[in-house]
Amino acid sequence: MVKDTNVTREVMEEDRPQKGGPGWRDLPVGAVIAGGANSAKFETGDWRTLKPVHLPDRCIHCLLCWVFCPDMAVIVEEGRVVGFDYKHCKGCGICAKECPSKVNAIDMVPEGADDAERSAVSEYQGKEDPVDDAKGTGN
Amino acid sequence: MTTLKELATKGELFSAGHRACAGCGFPQTVRLVLKAAERPVVAAVATGCLEVTSTIYPYTSWGCSFIHNAFENAAATISGVEAAYRALKRKGMEGEFDFIAFGGDGGTYDIGFQSLSGAMERGHNILYVCYDNQAYANTGIQRSGATPRGASTTTTPAGRALDGKPQARKDLTAIMAAHNIPYVAQAAVAHWKDLVTKVQKALAVDGPAFINVLAPCRLSWAIPPEDTIDVVRHAVDCCFWPLYEVEEGRWRLTYRPRERKSYVDWLRRQGRFRHLFQPGREELLKELEREVEERWQALLARTQSA
After folding, report:
1. How confident is the model at residue A138 (pLDDT cuts 50, 70, 90)?
2. Phi, psi of A7, deg, nearest 5
């Protein structure tokens, strides 16, 4: 996901249908959604069972993970991968698979694994402890 | 020459939060097509997974103008929009636009075929992009004209009576080339640069253009979600899905596999062909391989004679 997009990422509760709220007569003519591209307010991150973890030390910023991500969930700033948008990542693992095999800068770890479990997973895979996502990726 | 860094700095016209399955093949396709367009886009989408997952009210994933369609008429709608635009332009309206229709293989090969054929024949300045996942995936994986022979679907289930779909796949890209329109191409989601170049060429021509993009449905192909891109790469490398373009009637391969992979291995990777690897299907497998080889040779002949 490009950072300077005009889409707000906050969930706006008033967008969602509510009991006792406006009825169908209050919809705009043709149910037009003005503005567009507002689905980013809908979070699909809770579908995930495996979670990608970015290893910045190994990353060569080829952006192949970015181009093949179906959920625009790889955050790129100034041509560099800086992390994942965990609010939308569905955990398909395409990014980890498409990361060049000699680079291997993305680990898939079980969702909800705490730091101890996570390092156990990396140990099992013979890698160094992945860096915790310090940069506002939402988790 | 487009680089990924350049594409990454362009804004997103297809936004996250769509409800396509994890590991789906079309969001990347749509996003690359929209990023390749230089002018503001007007999009029409035939009913299918793409439409129903990206336009769930009150949300939309589309950052460009978007028109809802029934299953069969995305091409008719976009040609009408283009005609209206030309009429308004004669009356002094300013601005240039790209008119792009998207459809799945069901809405393109079969149900939307007559409106697509008509729109192409009338010569509208439009681009039609088919994301081909080789089945009616949205309604529960029924066979379509794009489903390859031997694939198990819910309407051609593999079992005692059937070894998956008995009929061969329609070659829609060639059918579109037979419309003698300025630009027709076959692309794949795994080859992003090839796809972006083809979209740019298609939008640059004055007249109708058609691009057929292989974009898997991981559910109906029965592959692990992370395999989506790699399995497409395999399809291209085994010459099942060659990448080529037909520019003003000239056929040209845009990619030739360095090392040809096995078509049977490609089938083996996918659960929809699992039954073909039970004993007694050896002849059928050979036949399927022969069919791919014949189509590849026919394509080579076309590209060499041009």
Report:
1. very low
2. -85, 130
